[in-house]
Amino acid sequence: MTDAPQGIDGVLAIDEARAVAAFAALGQENRLRIVRVLVTAGPDGMAAGRLAGAVGVSGTNLSFHLKELSHAGLVRSRRAGRSILYSAAYPALSGLIQFLMRDCCQGRPEVCAPAVAALAACCPPTRDPSHA
Amino acid sequence: MTDAPQGIDGVLAIDEARAVAAFAALGQENRLRIVRVLVTAGPDGMAAGRLAGAVGVSGTNLSFHLKELSHAGLVRSRRAGRSILYSAAYPALSGLIQFLMRDCCQGRPEVCAPAVAALAACCPPTRDPSHA
DNA sequence: TCAATAGTTCAGTCATCATTGAAACGTAGC
DNA sequence: GCTACGTTTCAATGATGACTGAACTATTGA
Hints:
3-stranded antiparallel β-sheet, Arc Repressor Mutant, subunit A, DNA-binding, elongated, 57% helix
């Protein structure tokens, strides 16, 4: 949480240790599902109870995974009434992608060009990339 | 290894199980280092011995991690004399990134725009993205 | 064929992780 | 305050993963 941004809004620059933690967090079936559900749920997030149902795990287990994801900086939480809403940490996810690509680009831009092309096809860059 | 490409050269489309395996493989310090070294080493790859020295692990341990990475589809190997050259599986890495972004894009293109912008700044797309 | 080199496999150990049920905590409404 | 609800923490278990040294396989060169 102490890294400085890299000059591009909405992207969190991460170091190796943080990347390892994030990848390890994503390297678990239920956690990857949680993140996917939260990402598609949008910035408003989703209550833990609904999330447990959507992913198909017990409340206890969900809490365990959410703590792990939160510690990895991939999700955020805020209370709303008696529920707690969890949401995806989009900048961290972008930073993770950027971390992988940073490797790719070291002297060999032609290697990651396919990935950039894939992204461009997936979601064409908008005129205002300053959204978090 | 049986997935069909998605119409973009150099990118391997992956399913959830494959993504989990890949993320889990990257979620280990030594393995992430191995991948980074191999990525920067380029398509020619690097012999296991040199790789062990570069990462700082024993031959036995390196072999263990390489098997894991290979099983996750993130590295390839080929014999060269009495050495075995390992190289990064760039399409798989691109596919992994695309998998994450595919989540981001579900109905909310503005969410992943920062990542695209970051990539564009990192390595501007070339005119020929058909490199593997 | 023999020795040397490069990597891998094997068996075993220690640590970490995923999962579960029960109990505890905090919040909302009566 | 009391009760119901939503969520987290705790303790315990089984499974998986990381690492090590020794033994094994494959290739090269004499």
